[in-house]
């Protein structure tokens, strides 16, 4: 069956089918073609990230998930406080990128890397990233880790809230 080469949804669908059949490298080609037709195609970025995770290419997967999130927010028309952190490349070292990488590694169960990235984000803005981490379900699996608690408790101990 021939697909329309300029139809991003057709490439996306073919990629999903190939991935479900275990043809991961071929599915990546399809997701890349879909993304080439619409760079902010967040579903394709996300599926590409999932395939890269399966191939244990975690840094590339992390980049794709960041791109997916950025594209999704862009599509919704949201103004983010730190757009560049959402669209960060793996070598960028912005607090938003560090936070996103912490989420990714927490979900993966890689506590060491999750804590290291979260520490970077919190060092930049303790209040913002501590509160976010305490409320983010991505950190549920590591929330009982003493290092996570130490990082996020900093917010509770250092915040000065006026009592009215």
Helix proportion: 55-70%
Shape: elongated
- CATH class designation of the largest domain: Mainly Alpha
Q: Total helix count? A: 9
Radius of gyration: 18 Å
Element-by-element helix/strand order: HHHHHHHHH
Distance between the termini: 69 Å
- Number of E-state strands: 0
Broad structural category: mainly alpha
Q: Which oligomeric form is depicted?
A: single chain
CATH fold title of the largest domain: Serine Threonine Protein Phosphatase 5, Tetratricopeptide repeat
CATH architecture identity of the largest domain: Alpha Horseshoe
Look at the structure and give the mean pLDDT: 81
**Beta-strand share of residues:** under 5%
The CATH superfamily of the largest domain bears the name: Tetratricopeptide repeat domain
Give unreliable regions as ranges: 78-91, 159-164
User: What can be said about the biggest beta sheet?
Assistant: none
Total domains? 2
